[in-house]
Amino acid sequence: MSVNIPRGTQDILPGQSEKWQYIESIAKDVCRRYHYKEIRTPIFEHTELFKRSVGDTTDIVQKEMYTFEDRGERSLTLRPEGTAAVVRSFVENKMFGHPDQPVKLFYTGPMFRYERPQAGRYRQFVQFGVEAIGSEDPAIDAEVIALVMDIYKAAGLQKLNLVINSLGDADSRNAHREALIGHFEPRIEEFCSDCQTRLQQNPLRILDCKKDRNHELMQTAPSILDYLNEESKVYFEKVTGYLDAIGVSYTVDPKLVRGLDYYNHTAFEVMSEAEGFGAITTLCGGGRYNGLVQQLGGPESPGIGFAFSIERFIAAMEAEGVEWPIDQGIDCFVVALGDAAKDRSVSLVHELRTAGLSADRDYQDRKMKAQLKASDRQHARFTAILGEDELAENRITLKDMAAGSQDQVPLNELAGYIKTKMEAK
Ligand code: AMP
Questions:
Q1: Spatial separation of the C-alpha atoms in residues 158 and 150, rounded to whole Å
Q2: Is the CB of 127 under 6 A from ligand 1?
Q3: Which terminus of the chain, N or C, has less C-beta within 10 A?
């Protein structure tokens, strides 16, 4: 009996994996330009970390974590998101002591959430994320937002909507919280049981509820923007002002609240507006988290970051019909005929590879015609044919597949010859 892949996960096969590498390389290159450096943290952490950072009342912590006990009876959890671990590492490695603040980091890797799988929602998915920790300059909010928009732009995505909002500082959030309780409390029994719990614990998250989103009280709920104190208002205006200055367009949506507890001030999401994109249109989520470093035992060190999944990035590329500039082909396929030529082709492909070219050959003892077909299937730029005659004369027949031309090349000059031709292109 065969064993199948777990629900909500996927195999990324050759043909697809190149798309992943492509997106990752674009994202890393944009990070290089913005001067963000890579951090790699473990895939599992102490469960406590996520309870304390993501928040005890969030769906992630209450319903979605892959938590297990190891043989030493520690409770560990496969990371459901990246920020908590990055902040833990920031504190643990005393990065707050570095003279250059903020510390600007990016990460990529698999995240795990026990969610109901559907298009664009997996139980294991790969996030690419950025965190800038150690500055409360609104310019860094604009920088982080510009960075993610630049990644999308570099990949060729156009049908995007950047939605931003301010959740304000603690005072503003408290005032808004009271207003929300006053608004929902009289009719809270009309809401789902989760929302009833949220009312006292974290009423902001009622606005995020998927079940009750069409309830009339949702439309009339007090807007956070009306409860921002002067400082928070000025902060938000600075952020949007900087975005205007660098030509990043956005929509302000006062209903945008983020699912995790640790956000304040700037919150943002990038949505795909491509036709045919599935029901879940959020490509990226991010925001500011000023209290998180302290919450995890560090000094006051305000941060901001975002994360997107490569899965939804690829789905958006497909929905917009963006070309993948991916070369699936190899530089040279060596066709060898007869035992002596086959033996020689072992060192020949090795010479090509050592010279930096991608090269392959036949390993199934196929006839000439089948080897030529294989070369075609593998989109070889050149096909090198080595028969008994060629071998005796120390030369090789080289077909330029694009030009349709053919040359005789000295055997020991093959790699150099191909490289010169490729550079001339
Ligand atoms: P979050 O950490 O929930 O704010 O998610 C940030 C981004 O990660 C989202 O905008 C999605 O691009 C992606 N994402 C979150 N959950 C999933 C999932 N289950 N499957 C695929 N992508 C996801």
A1: 11
A2: yes
A3: N
